[in-house]
Amino acid sequence: MEQETIVQRTLYVDASPEAIWRALTEPQLAKQYMDGWQVQSEWTRLAPIQWIDAQEGLSVVKAKGTVMENLPGRRLRYTQLILDSGLPDEPASYTTIDLSVEVEKDGRTRLHLWHGDFAGLPLDVRRTREAGRSLGGNLGGLEARSGGAAEPDGRLIGSFVRLFRPCGRLGPFPAPLPHENAHQHLAGHGEDPGNGGELRFFKRNDDYSIEVVGIQGDLMTTALHGSEDALAEMAIRKLPDPRNARVLVGGLGMGFTLAAALKHVGPKGEVVVAELVPEVVKWNQGPMGERSGNPMLDPRASVRVMDVTEIIRAEKSGYDAILLDTDNGPEGLTQSANSRLYSMKGLHNAFRALRPNGVLAIWSTHPDAPFSRRLAEVGFRIDEQKVFAHRDKGTKHHLWFAQRGK
Fold first, then answer.
1. What is the three-class DSSP state of 130?
2. Cα angle at 313 between 307 and 314, to 5 degrees?
């Protein structure tokens, strides 16, 4: 049964994966099934995407997002915000579209689309249902016939019209939040030593945020930390002796995962944090640290400016729990080297670094079925949960709790 706030559609096409990929990514083809909107992107990882309505000599940006993954002929995943949807331009407003392509035994190509999660957005169920109608209405039994063509033809485009007609033009919706009127100033910047990317640290009224230059929206903000709290709390509660637990946290962030871990271990517990960016540690030592309760001052906490993968490899059976909040999920959004954490080798290293009945917990913006399979192949027992980004509202994030045996 489809979740109320997620849209999933599958289309079987008599066309090659290459033809499908051209129809997905080439502007002149895409506009034939996107109400005339042209999609523009370099289609490299983290590249921006814009959907542009060009009529009567005018070009208007109707939607935007960021490429999260592009494996030509196999998988395309990106974020998207429809600009007239009435939602503020902030991370919680963006939904994710995940497309996967696979050749079937009968020679047809299966195209599967996942669009979500609309949970927590204003009128979330209504938005989801409208998206579902726009993404194909009734696709049961629909098969596009293009004679196995290597080039996209009219019948393939016709099928895409049904599958990808733009959604989001729903109204009336609440007006966008006045971000442009918020008191904001740049409080600092830093460089990610792993990939040379620039991080910017902002203060907005009473909140703080960190952005990655070139990626739309906040990477993290003190205004939204419910899922980070849940990552630590739910992982530590699964341990046989949580009061005396030794916990490793990958990524200091805004300090909320560290604060939650300290809350749920006892006086003899210990929480070690690995943070790759020195400026992030510095920002947590300043006024921003007050938002999470200044957890770095707790004597049970220690912060090491280093790659968490180095700690995991170095300490066999060293931790009761490993909490990975290093990025936006298993693909590694800001730090491509983070993908090493989530590879088979990285997961085996994490398994060895855990004590008996230890828990590996991973935070993500979205589910990832291949990653779940990798966890199971390593030998973990898996529990997946979706939790709100902020208390009982807002978008939902995806958490994995992978527990090893004795």
1. helix
2. 95
Given pLDDT bands bounded at 50, 70 and 90, which one contains residue 140? Answer: very low
User: What are the pLDDT digits (tens) for 287-317?
Assistant: 889 989 999 999 999 999 999 999 999 999 9
Tell me the sheet residues that pair with 368.
none
pLDDT of residue 168 exceeding 60, the answer is no
Place of tokens 């709390």: 233
Burial tier of 141 (Cβ tally within 10 Å: 0-12, 13-18, 19+): exposed
Burial class (CB in 10 A: 0-12, 13-18, 19+), 274: buried
224: DSSP letter = B
Q: Which two tokens stand for residue 366?
A: 């979205």
pLDDT for res 329? 64
Tokens 């999660």 belong to 117
pLDDT higher at 34 or 253: 253
Query: How many beta carbons lie within 10 A of that of residue 305, not counting itself?
Result: 15
Cα separation, 267 vs 308, in Å, equals 24
Q: What span, in angstroms and rounded, lies between the C-alpha atoms of 264 and 245?
A: 9
Q: Which residue(s) pair with 384 in the sheet?
A: 400
What is the rounded CA–CA span in Å between residue 220 and residue 157? 38
**For the segment 204-262, what is each residue's pLDDT rounded down to a tens digit?**
777 888 776 655 556 777 777 788 889 999 999 999 999 999 999 998 988 999 999 99
Q: In what order do the strands lie in the sheet with 220-221?
A: 184-191, 198-204, 207-212, 220-221
SS3 338: helix
Cβ atoms of residues 280 and 306 within 8 Å: no
Phi/psi at 102 (5° precision): -150, 135
Integer Cα distance of 98 and 369 in angstroms: 12
DSSP helix/strand/coil, 95 = strand
